[in-house]
Amino acid sequence: MNQELFTNLPSELIINILSRLPIRTIISCKCVCKSWLNLLDTPEFARSHFSRSVPGLILWQRQRDLDSEHFEGSANGLVCFRKLGQHPETVHICNPITRDYIQLPTPGTIWYSPTTVTYGFGASKASGQHKVVRIYHECIRVPDTHELLGIPKSECWVYTLGTGSWRSIAPGPKLEYNSRSIGAFLNGNLHWLVADSEGFARISCLDLETEVFSTFSAPDLPEMSRFLGGLTVLGDCLCVCDNASDDEIVIWLMKKYGVEKSWTKEFVIRKLPDYAGESYEVVYPIKIFKDGDIMMAWEDFHLFYHSIKNKTTASVDIAALQTAERGWIKNQDPTQEEIRVRPNGSPGKSGLD
Amino acid sequence: MAPKNKNPNGENVVPEVQQKKTQALILKSSDGEEFSISKSAAGLSVAIKNMMEDDCAGGVIPLPLVDGGTLARVITYLNKHAEDGASDEDKRKFDEEFLSGMEVDVLCDVALAGNYLDIRGLFHDVCQRIVNGMKNKSVEWVRKTFRIESDFTAEEEEQIKKEYAWAWEGVDSDAD
Questions:
Q1: Which residue among A48, A228, A303, A325 is least crowded, i.e. fewest CB within 10 A of its CB?
Q2: Which segments constitute the SKP1 component POZ domain (chain B) (predicted)?
Q3: What is the pLDDT of residue B170?
Q4: Residues of B in contact with A17 (CB under 8 A)
Q5: Is the pLDDT reported for residue A338 higher than 80?
Q6: What angle (nearest 5°) sits at the alpha carbon of residue A352, between those of residues B141 and A327?
């Protein structure tokens, strides 16, 4: 009767049991013995824990210096940040739930402002590999009007987590990427809203498994020069949100993934009086709730909640949410916390090794 | 001897209650104990149901991975959940009492049996019970409860604790 209780249990059963624990207890279990430590660091454990997690939202506070970190996307609970300014292209992947992070090695050439690169972060569908994508299209423009004259040079680099180095891949068609845009990760693919050589909006899509680019239609938007918005994922749909109008925010959804005709002007939301008029900020829909209500971010500054039923929009008090140290919303307990990383973190370091 | 019943024609019949009882199986534990269980209760275990359908058992199903004590508990659970007229509320209450009296080692045995016999509700509840007891407990408590001896050196353990220092804020210091 004095033998270890868990020795009889097969490892998948122990994983099943321990992956139900809150993150703090999981971490203290790493100290119990070596076999538990090994088990808790396996990808199987991370997957099992992740599958029990509820999606959440992460807020972070950007430091007001030149080296601030910018959000570049999240996948499976891991978040990608990139530095701008003095040390551009310093990329971190972190797991905010376990507070583990890694810094990627520097890619071959670093481009300083105003030359810009566009990033994306996601995981391949079949093999589940996490990849950071870095796209560079050198654009020649008319100095005054910024009109695009040509794209003489294109590059695309991929960093697969765990490999330790960047690889060059075929950069796909020559398109005009916006450095402010973040790759929208859906269905194992990354997507960017781009302009073709004629200035029309298109969606550039990279399959993270095959690493092949394709292009498909964007919704029927005004000219790109008059368009103010970005591409995100809302629910299970690609979403384009246009904030160029003085008094309305227009949200388009691609109702059936990959079906170009399924782009639908889903919501038109009246702006709050304080936000009406000419604006230069991009609006990102973040989450659509079961009742159809939407949470949106106004650039990096404000959070809004729009009720579809009442047709009302209210500001969310971010200051009241910022109770945590260094701007991290407290998220130690993935089973209880309401505000968390989207989608939720997996506790194993495995995803980061 | 079962009482002999005759129908109006004077033929022998098996009473209805007894007929239901004949709809039974024998489950045999790893230590050779035999338990009778109704087919409807046994069918709540996906694994036993498959064995019944394959008819490989011939009325006696050997369960070499489940000891008698554990099997008795599992059968109690299955009987309650197969009981006619037991409401969901009754079952919930029963589950709560059924599990609350079990020590961790018993819970582990029942979890193993629940997994092996593929009784999803039981397995889920037992795992959750084990986990609820572990929340916010110290490393020492976990080792003691699960009778695990640490194979870390003091330095190794210190290293992990240092790496995740934040995780130890608010953990019960009391080893019990």
A1: A325
A2: 25-82
A3: 63
A4: 111, 127, 130-131
A5: no
A6: 80
Residue whose C-alpha is closest to residue A80's, from A58, A108, A64: A58
Q: Looking at residue A337, what is its pLDDT?
A: 28
> Tokens standing for A39?
């088990």
DSSP structure string for A50-61: HHTPPP-----P
Structure tokens at A353: 């090794």
Distance in angstroms (rounded) separating the CA atoms of residues B140 and B127 = 21
pLDDT tens across A270-284, in order? 888 877 887 778 888
Residue B73 pLDDT greater than 80, yes or no: yes
Q: With contacts defined as CB-CB under 8 Å, which chain B residues touch A1?
A: 105
Angle at CA of residue B40, ends B38 and B45, nearest 5°: 100
Residue A31, chain B, CB below 8 Å: the answer is yes
Tell me, what's the pLDDT at A331?
35
Tell whether A259 is covered by a domain: yes
| CA gap A227, B119 in Å, rounded | 56
Residue A228 lies in a domain: yes
In the stretch 74-103 of chain A, residues with CB closer than 8 A to chain B read: 98-99
Instruction: Tell me the three state secondary structure of residue A126.
Output: coil
Contact A118, A135 (CB under 8 A): yes
pLDDT tens for B81-107 read 998 888 899 999 999 999 998 988 899
The whole-angstrom separation of Cα A199 and Cα A223 is: 7
Domain count, chain A: 1
- B-interface mutation test, from A15, A29, A33, most B Cβ less than 10 A away: A33
A-chain CB neighbours of B113 within 8 Å are none
Predicted structure pTM score? 0.77
Asked if the model's pLDDT at residue A145 lies above 80, the reply is no
**Are B63 and B29 contacting, i.e. CB atoms less than 8 angstroms apart?**
yes
Per-residue tokens: A145:
């009007």
Longest distance between any two alpha carbons in chain A, whole Å = 83
Containing structural domain, residue A294: 219-321
pLDDT at A325: 35
List of domains in chain B: 23-134 (3.30.710.10), 139-168 (no CATH)
Query: Given this model, what pLDDT does residue B127 score?
Result: 94
